[in-house]
Amino acid sequence: MVSASHAHLVQRVVDEIWNAGDLDLADELFGRTYVNHGGLVPDLVCGPESVKFSVALYRMAFPNLHIWADELRASGGMVTLRWTARAGSNNGDGVRTRGDALTGSTKFSVIGDQIVESWTSWNSAAVLEKLGVAPRMG
Question: What is the mean pLDDT of residues 98-108?
Answer without folding.
Answer: 83
